[in-house]
Amino acid sequence: MKVFQIKEQFYLDEKPFKILSGAIHYFRVHPDDWYHSLYNLKALGFNTVETYVPWNLHEPQKGQFNFEGILDLGAFLDLAHSLGLYAIVRPSPYICAEWEWGGLPAWLMKENLRVRSSDQVYLKHLDDYYAFLLPKLVKRQLSHGGNILMFQVENEYGSYGEEKAYLRAVTALMKKHGLTAPFFTSDGPWRATLRAGSLIEDDILVTGNFGSKANENFAQMQDFFDEYGKKWPLMCMEFWDGWFNRWGEEVIRRDADELAQAVMEALELGSINLYMFHGGTNFGFMNGCSARGQKDLPQVTSYDYDAILDEAGNPSKKFYALQALMKERYPELDYKDPLVKEASAPLAVELTDKVGLFSVVDLFSHRIDAFYPQNMEELNQSTGYILYQTRIEKDKLEAERLRIIDARDRIQVYVDGNLIATQYQEEIGEDISLEMPQSPVKLQILVENMGRVNYGHKLTAPTQSKGLGRGAMADLHYIGNWEMFPLPLEDVSSLDFNREWQEGQPAFYRYQFELGTPTDTYVDMTGFGKGVVFVNNVNIGRFWEKGPICSLYVPKGYLKKGVNTITVFETEGKYRERLVFSQKHVYKDL
Q1: Known catalytic residue: 156?
Q2: CB atoms within 10 A of CB 399
Q3: What is the mean pLDDT of each run of 10 residues along the chain (590 residues)?
Q4: Does the active-site annotation cover 8?
Q5: Which CATH number is correct for 357-487, 2.60.120.260, 3.30.420.40, 3.40.1080.10, 3.40.50.920?
Q6: Which residues form the signal peptide (predicted)?
Q7: Which of 234, 253, 462, 584 lies 20 to 30 Å (CA to CA) from residue 555?
């Protein structure tokens, strides 16, 4: 059995070992493509794969666990092992990762607890989750004949808190459920975050996260080690080779040659984990959100990250630039040519059917009645949309003053089916002029959760509770008698396209087409407004005309030979009679 040790260097079977790792998140890559990505990591000359583990996908509702399909962590690790790759696993509870609420499950908000703390209720839920998760990792440790070298305790905790009792509680739970491989923490490389987020006093390895200036950043870490008398190897656990993107902002790019040089600088001093090696996709509603002042900035569906592999898993310029320098400096490593997948663009597809949301909402949602509206978490929903509706009476001749209170994150307000206002978080609560030609009128509010904050001080803010909060006010009083329709949009197969469609309303659009041999492709959403796309009933993510990316990547694994169905849920009343495909992403000039 192989032995991995942390001394003044990393050792594998008593020989010095430099960790050359790349991040691939199994939950962001279709399982059919895992081999492609892992093979390319090995082909680069690297020896280890690193992955986070998202609690909110594995336990989407309390006590309901899922480790199948794209969530089969064990299968992913076994495949890596078969290719000769070691693994580093970061098993929650919080992962950041530009992921919806940093991987924390939304149902925790109902539990009267404080996340990321030694709160006993929170730790009990973590204990229950670990009871399902960690046995899958125990048997894949190096000491059990598997390939896992190390496990992370929490994640960048020094950028959030400094409660060492909490970090020790997480460590104790990991040990309780059988993890024996070395533990580590990772934080920013400066003293404040290292001091707050590490367990250096407990002899748990400290690693740093940065994307440049390795000499300077490793020097700060070495000073911290020296302060505590630790003789440890230096490792950058997240060497940021690119960056994520937000709606309405320019795509962030990094020069390939500059990145390759920066990586080599880091390797001269220590070990490295490239974040990301393959970024992949925020399928469904799993994109995270940045917090900036009073405004939250949701991130796009693509998690391309301008990484070593592109969103589809093919080598970027960075792959070749880095491999060339690696071959010069480390000629003894095993290098190979990378695998490259082809993408195709099927012919444009004619619109088959369309139907309005308001006419079919009763088919795939269950109506809940209450005098006061309930938010998303109270309705046992984590992501997606909620439609709230009620009736209000006309009390005066002039326009009524309407205000929507505490809604998150985006609302569209309709009166008798007509859109009268669209508001975002920073506008919600402002006056809406409500003309009422008749009385009563039907008031409908479509609320969208655009992604919970994944990092920083707003992680536990009230704004991370989604849906309609205290409600809506007409004149000076709260409106009552609400009908609520949760719309997690997990399954759209029951839609009845024989029902009514009205111009300017949220609607579903269905396109059907035949394929021979499926290949990767990209759906060009130019001409649509905002919404999500389903490929054969799988939610592949959000689109928004705001850009910068106006297309969605579709892995071939979500397509099939024969008839395929693409269903678009669009909220702005904008659609196309013909759906267009592309062989690459379509970008918008900003």
Answers
A1: yes
A2: 12
A3: 96 98 99 98 98 98 98 98 98 96 97 97 98 98 98 98 98 98 98 98 98 98 98 98 97 97 98 98 98 88 98 98 98 98 95 98 94 97 98 86 95 96 94 89 97 94 92 94 97 95 98 96 98 98 98 98 98 98 95
A4: no
A5: 2.60.120.260
A6: none
A7: 253
